[in-house]
Specification:
CATH superfamily of chain B: Luciferase-like domain
Order of helices and strands of chain A: EEEHEHEHEHHHEHEHH
Number of domains of chain A: 1
Largest sheet of chain B: 8 strands, parallel, barrel
Radius of gyration of chain B: 20 Å
Mean pLDDT of chain A: 96
Strand order of the largest sheet of chain A: 1-2-4-3-5-6-7-8
Number of helices of chain A: 9
Low-confidence stretches of chain A: none
CATH topology of chain B: TIM Barrel
CATH class of chain A: Alpha Beta
Largest sheet of chain A: 8 strands, mixed
Largest interface: A-B, 27 and 28 residues
Structural class of chain B: alpha/beta
Strand content of chain A: 15-25%
Low-confidence stretches of chain B: none
Order of helices and strands of chain B: EHEHEHEHHEEEHEHEHHHEEHEHEH
CATH architecture of chain B: Alpha-Beta Barrel
Mean pLDDT of chain B: 93
Oligomer: heterodimer
Shape of chain B: globular
Shape of chain A: globular
Number of strands of chain A: 8
Number of strands of chain B: 13
CATH class of chain B: Alpha Beta
Distance between the termini of chain B: 18 Å
Helix content of chain B: 25-40%
Helix content of chain A: 25-40%
Strand order of the largest sheet of chain B: 1-2-3-4-7-8-9-13
Number of helices of chain B: 13
């Protein structure tokens, strides 16, 4: 395997950071109000319109989760709640307050767990195509089985146009592919059984007490809009919106619309804050 | 040399039902239980004949598949334990990383070993990637779980002053105390199949018997890796008895009859890889390096990591086991040249097996896939009789070279 080059490409903006004793890759960008972006299994794409859009609005923190990309694996972490504890430690170590937490897909699950654990340092929560919740019966599936759907068919569930997929093997560096393999294994480790959900999350989401927006692609084939609506319904006061011409990754397929929804949601939040003062 | 007879117990009647996947997702409406009953009982009859003619028996298991009707090593072994009296029984193998209940497995092994009064050999398999979904076992850290399970099963089989405690990353048991304990002391012999250098080295480190399946002349490299592992662990230099090789074996009254039987068995190779891409590489089954190589090649199926392609002696690569890409055009001469198939008259088969053994520096056991595809029960029985009467007696007196040097 000597033909694999594991050097980090020069155009990657990640820096190494120690958080809660764990060495992770972190992208920091922008200025202003703090925002924590929790990525999906497909990783962080710093040059994507969604990412640069967030960096233009916030002081953005985008960490690679432990065990994902090139971040250190903590052997003993065994469920997504361990990652939630990790991110609570991150917020405390950085002394961040009023943080907008945005999570996409698997990262949306982490974001929901973070908020369920404590909202003390959070200002708002945005879930995009999140997994993590079980809403239907025992012989029904809420979340498409990525490990049992032929690749081409699964891509058609994820994207209105699979050409929008950010991870194209023919354009990725070895470093990125190596990281993707680690991300997939860690996601399996944490989300295999129960499949991509935590049975007790349903209970704990009822105590989330910050403004929450759930954004779903109108044509999401992985987690349906009905699932997204049910997800939002477990969080008191949460809003649910759909994005046309987008499937499971609306921030990838419709970044401008998704950013606009976030802008309007947060404007409403600060409007309510002003009214309360 | 010893011999073990093997069949996957296929259900060829469903092989035309789905061109995408004969495993995991092929609905079981394609299985007629009356046909299955005939097939299963025919295979059991063949194994009982093996007992009468002195050929040891190997069985296996797969799940949710039209390629193998045996869902449990243990069940098949338990039936054969009482229906055979002479030969050794090898389960190859128990899919350790897919077993959530290693202590129960140790109990079953010890029980069967007692019933057979010590005729049991136990094989531990990594299991193919498409076995993960039917078991719903987590593919992450897969081999770590395999070896943890291996350690627990062997400890459960050998500890006599228990109970003992096991609190690992993968298994939690508090009073492990297996009754009955195995008849063979300290435990039945352990076999592990390997098709890559890294795996063969690990088997050598532990001193188990290395089983090589259809690897052709690459068996030599696997043996070398095994020896390296054994040396690194300070084990004695392994003799031929530590090496077993599986090929397709068919004997006829004539060369043509034997080769024609082998061609029916080849149905195994024509179908074994017909599996949806999504089941071929669950995350964690392969380490990151292997995954990067897959991504670079945009590969969605096939062997991974440092597996070798099967080649003829002149180096030509044979597309063996390529599933949908199977051309069906590999000439029997090439398959025999590559030591994937040993077929023909009794003289032919004896000559091919011993020549192969000599060439790779000695094997102690041939694992014969004597049934597969749509080979008829009558042909399988005839081939078993010919092998038992005309090949095996000579193999038993054949002395494999006990050397690491290849011819």
């Amino acid at each position: 395997m000597s033909s694999i080059d594991l050097a980090r490409p020069a155009d990657r903006p990640e820096t190494r950071a120690i958080v809660a004793g764990v060495a992770i890759d972190l992208v920091e960008a922008g200025r202003g109000r703090p925002c924590l972006l929790l990525h999906d299994i497909d990783g962080i794409h710093p040059s994507s319109p969604f990412f640069t859009g967030l960096a233009g609005r916030f002081r953005l923190f985008a960490p690679w989760h432990p065990g994902f990309g090139h971040s250190e694996t903590v052997r003993q972490f065994h469920d997504v709640r361990d990652l939630a504890i990790f991110y609570q430690a991150f917020l405390k170590e950085r002394d961040l307050d009023g943080v907008t937490v945005i999570g996409t897909g698997f990262g949306g699950w982490i974001a929901a767990e973070v908020a369920a654990m404590s909202t003390d340092r959070l200002g708002a929560l945005v879930l995009i195509g999140a997994v993590g919740l079980k809403v239907s019966g025992r012989d029904e599936r809420d979340i498409a089985d990525m490990h049992a759907t032929p690749f081409a068919a699964y891509e058609a569930l994820e994207y209105v146009d699979p050409a929008n997929k950010p991870n194209r093997y023919d354009r990725m560096s070895d470093w990125e592919m190596w990281g993707l393999a680690r991300s997939r294994e860690t996601a399996a480790h944490l989300g295999w059984k129960p499949y991509m959900h935590n049975p007790s999350l349903n209970h704990w989401l009822g105590r989330v007490d910050i403004p929450t927006l759930a954004i779903w692609g109108e044509r999401d084939g992985v987690t349906s809009p009905a699932y997204g609506e049910a997800y939002a319904g477990t969080i008191p006061g949460a809003s649910f919106v759909t994005v046309p011409d987008a499937a499971h990754h609306p921030h990838v397929e419709q970044p401008a619309r998704t950013l606009d929804l976030i802008d309007r949601f947060l404007a409403g939040v600060s409007g309510r804050e002003r009214a309360a003062e | 040399m010893e011999a073990y007879y093997f069949s996957e117990q296929p259900y060829p009647g469903a092989w035309e039902s789905d061109i995408e996947s004969l495993r995991v997702t092929l609905p079981n409406r394609h299985c007629d239980p009356r046909v299955a009953a005939d097939l299963i009982n025919a295979r059991l009859d063949e194994w009982e004949l093996c007992d009468r003619v002195g050929i040891n028996i190997m069985i296996n298991e797969h799940h949710s598949s039209a390629t193998c009707l045996s869902p449990s090593n243990t069940i098949t072994l338990a039936m054969l334990a009482r229906r055979t009296t002479n030969v050794r029984l090898l389960g190859l193998g128990f899919p350790l990383a897919n077993r959530p209940d290693p202590v129960r497995l140790a109990e079953e092994i010890a029980y069967i070993d007692c019933v057979t009064r010590g005729r049991l050999d136990i094989g531990f398999s990594k299991a193919a990637p498409y076995e993960i979904s039917p078991a719903n076992s987590n593919p992450a850290r897969f081999m770590d779980r395999f070896w943890d399970t291996h350690d627990l099963v062997l400890k459960a089989l050998t500890v006599q002053d228990g109970p003992f405690n096991w609190e690992s990353e993968f298994h939690h048991f508090r009073q492990v105390n297996v009754w009955p304990r195995p008849y063979q002391q300290p435990r039945p012999p352990v076999w592990i199949p390997a098709g890559s250098i890294a795996s063969a080295r690990e088997v050598g480190q532990r001193g188990h018997t290395l089983a090589m399946f259809l690897s052709g002349l690459n068996a030599r490299k696997l043996k070398d890796a095994y020896r390296e592992g054994a040396r690194a662990a300070g084990r004695p230099e392994p003799g031929p008895e530590k090496f077993a090789y599986m090929g397709i074996v068919a004997v006829g009254e004539t060369r043509e009859e034997g080769r024609s039987r082998a061609d029916r068995i080849m149905g195994y190779l024509r179908t074994t890889s017909i599996v949806s891409d999504c089941f071929m590489n669950p995350p964690g089954y392969m380490p990151p390096a292997g995954n990067v190589m897959w991504m670079k090649r945009n590969q969605t199926r096939g062997r991974a990591g440092d597996h070798f392609p099967v080649t003829k002696r002149d180096g030509t690569i044979l597309k063996v086991g390529s599933g949908r890409d199977w051309t069906g055009e590999i000439p029997m001469d090439d398959l025999i040249d590559a030591n994937i198939v040993f077929a023909g008259s009794a003289d032919d088969v004896y000559g091919q097996i011993t020549e192969f053994s000599d060439r790779i520096g000695g094997i102690g056991t041939v694992l014969m896939m004597g049934h597969g595809g749509d080979l008829s029960h009558e042909d399988a029985m005839a081939s078993i009789r010919l092998f038992g009467e005309q090949v095996l007696p000579r193999l038993k007196t054949y002395a494999a070279p006990d050397t690491a040097e290849a011819v």
